[in-house]
Design a protein that fits this description.
mainly alpha; Four Helix Bundle (Hemerythrin (Met), subunit A); two-stranded antiparallel ribbon; 2 strands; globular; binds nickel (II) ion; DinB-like; cytoplasm; Put_metal_dep_hydrolase_YfiT
Length: 175
């Protein structure tokens, strides 16, 4: 049976390479376009459909990606400018139920993602090979994580949630 939670599988860390870097930077750059494409023509009833039983709705997924990637951007800025800073985890399930998420249209978050990812991509594209080895301390994981690992994680994270939406569209025959 298909696990709807992991349509593209789990994140698999990869060693640093120029090709992988270009691929992951492109994932960051084009995530907002991918989300916009995944959402095309969906009406409010469709947007409020859970992508799996008991899961987040499409609407919550989009706001979650914005929540997650705002945190991600801050993690990269901290990791780049400080010596092994401890980053802050957050309660993503609770963040997905606050008033801004429940009351605002998904367009607000896609607009936010276009601006955020433009800044994030330009920032990341300036990294030297050595910059990718800078680390943050991740209290959730209880260990140091380098910015290369973090890049792969967020490239995966964007594709992972986009696939939740596109897989739902396919199963529901929404075209
Ligand atoms: Ni997520």
């Amino acid at each position: 049976m298909t696990d709807f939670r992991y349509p593209i599988g789990a994140y698999e860390p990869k060693p640093f390479s120029k090709d992988k870097k270009e691929e992951w930077l492109a994932d960051i750059r084009f995530l907002p376009n991918a989300i916009e494409h995944a959402l095309r023509n969906l009406d409010e009833a469709q947007l409020h459909t859970p992508y799996r039983e008991g899961g987040w709705t499409v609407h919550q997924l989009v706001h979650h990606i914005a929540d997650s990637h705002m945190n991600a951007y801050i993690r990269f800025k901290l990791g780049y400018t400080e010596q092994v800073p401890a980053i802050k985890t957050y309660e993503e399930q609770l963040w997905a139920t606050t008033a801004d998420v429940t009351s605002l249209l998904v367009n607000v978050s896609t607009t936010l993602l276009f601006a955020l990812h433009e800044r994030w991509h330009v920032f990341l594209a300036s990294f030297t090979d050595a910059d990718w080895e800078k680390t943050i301390f991740h209290p959730g994981l209880g260990k140091e994580v380098n910015l290369w690992h973090l890049l792969g994680m967020y490239a995966w994270h964007g594709r992972h949630h986009t696939a939740h939406i596109t897989a739902l569209r396919e199963r529901m025959d929404w075209y």
